Amino acid sequence: MIIVAITGASGIIYGLKVLEALKERKIDTALVITDPARIILEYELDLKIEDLKNKATCYYEASDLTSSINSGSFKFESMVIVPCTMKTLSAIATGYASNSITRAADVALKERRKLVLVPRETPLRSIHLENMLEISREGGIILPAMPGFYHRPENLDDMANFIAGKILDVLEIEHDLFLRWSGDEI
């Protein structure tokens, strides 16, 4: 089981692409999405929460601190927060587990499970960088939404698939979401 959390930053397409790729590979997912992310989902992609729920194995409300994903006894392999707001990143860095996303991330870190945060903010303040460093020191992986261009993306999907592919790489899941660099291109 992989927990996929979507917070209210721009770039919800990255979370959508990850969910689609995991579903295609028949990997169980638990989806959590914040209320601000629902608004951005509709604004950026013209989708409703039900469209994302259909791509996940199960769904949990971000506000439900009694859900199973909030416990260390809940078995999940890894967690991806994509996109990850600076508010969520800050809460995780400081141990402020006030919702299901930050609590499950806290569980991932304390249980030494893989935690991948995909911030989509620019420019970054010093405190953002310090929070990222703190999470990295605890074993979390910071994977900024910074698409490459060596694969010559032709559209937004190609760029989003690049980031989704990098996330799958970190999770050690095989994929063909982008063309890998071989050195022969030059």
Q: Give the N-to-C terminal Cα separation.
A: 40 Å
CATH architecture classification: 3-Layer(aba) Sandwich
CATH superfamily: Flavin prenyltransferase-like
In terms of quaternary structure, what is this? single chain
Biggest sheet, spatial arrangement of strands: 3-2-1-4-5-6
Order of helices and strands: EHEHHEEHHEHEH
What best-fitting shape do the alpha-carbon axes yield? globular
Topology-level CATH name: Rossmann fold
Structure summary, number of beta strands: 6
> What proportion of the residues form beta strands (DSSP E)?
15-25%
- What's the overall average pLDDT, rounded? 96
Question: What is the number of independent domains?
Answer: 1
Secondary structure category: alpha/beta
Number of helices: 7
Any idea what the radius of gyration is?
A: 16 Å
Identify low-pLDDT runs: none
CATH class, named Alpha Beta
Largest sheet: 6 strands, parallel
Helix content: 40-55%
List keywords for this structure.
alpha/beta; six-stranded parallel beta sheet; 7 helices; 186 residues; Rossmann fold
